[in-house]
Design a protein that fits this description.
single chain, 236 residues, alpha/beta, 5-stranded parallel β-sheet, 5-stranded antiparallel β-sheet, 8 helices
Length: 236
């Protein structure tokens, strides 16, 4: 049974939402404030979070910021704020969807289902990206051999960390594809790594340095993450 964490301090509304979600077949946990929300998220690892903006003890945006430091759990923001600027702030911090109060229970359940479907598709993509391919990959004079777990540049063996190797392999397998920083954390560290975007940037920086001039092929996609210049790599 898929698990939903509802973070809502209005008890009457919370009761209605919990009733509808349980009727739709979900296991529901309820937090009345931000600190309890973080505790329940850590203990129960829900599949989706419904997060109110205005909360006691810790507001919804701060809860979202802290969740995104270590988790990619889909988050649907629930709020009475209808201004576009407010919606943008929530989405930029890491919310996956936004629902303005008052809302219909039917729409709420539909959005939860949509988020869960999207999350499942992402998991399938991540699983495929984690699978080790058998073919050798190249980038100019660079060769990556998944079977021997070795990378050579102009015939010289490169000393790459496991994370650097996995990142390079991921980029070589999908030239032109933009990978978000949160996706890289979920894929390379299996979602267990606790660190901000800067840590991902540091791994990319080290890899670029070790690749020399070829490192320029790893492009920064501003506001998203990184990609390998399309056409720069191929299978041997």
């Amino acid at each position: 049974m898929e698990k939903v964490l509802l973070v809502e301090d209005e008890n009457d509304l919370a009761k209605i939402v919990m009733r509808e979600l349980r009727g739709a077949g979900y296991e529901v946990f309820h937090a009345e404030d931000g600190l309890k929300a973080l505790d329940l998220h850590e203990r129960h690892q829900p599949d989706v979070v419904l997060l109110d903006w205005m909360l006691p003890r810790l507001n919804g945006l701060e809860v979202l910021r802290r969740l995104r430091q270590s988790s990619a759990t889909p988050v649907l923001m629930l709020t009475a704020r209808s201004e576009e600027a407010d919606r943008v702030i929530g989405l930029e911090i890491g919310a996956d969807d936004y629902l303005t109060k008052p809302f219909s229970m039917r729409e709420l359940v539909a959005r939860v289902r949509a988020l869960l479907r999207r999350a499942e598709l992402i998991k399938l993509t991540i699983s495929a990206d984690r699978r080790v391919a058998s073919e050798e990959l190249c980038l100019g004079n660079l060769r990556l051999n998944p079977q021997t777990h070795e990378v050579t540049l102009e015939g010289a063996l490169l000393d790459l960390s496991p994370t650097e190797f996995a990142l390079l392999q991921l980029l070589l397998r999908s030239p032109g594809r933009a990978f978000s920083r949160s996706y890289l954390i979920e894929t390379l560290w299996s979602g267990t790594y606790i660190g901000g975007d800067r840590s991902v940037d540091n791994v990319v920086l080290r890899l670029r340095k070790k690749l020399g001039k070829l490192g320029d092929s790893i492009e920064t996609v501003w506001g998203i993450g990184y990609r390998l210049h399309n056409g720069a790599s191929g299978k041997v």
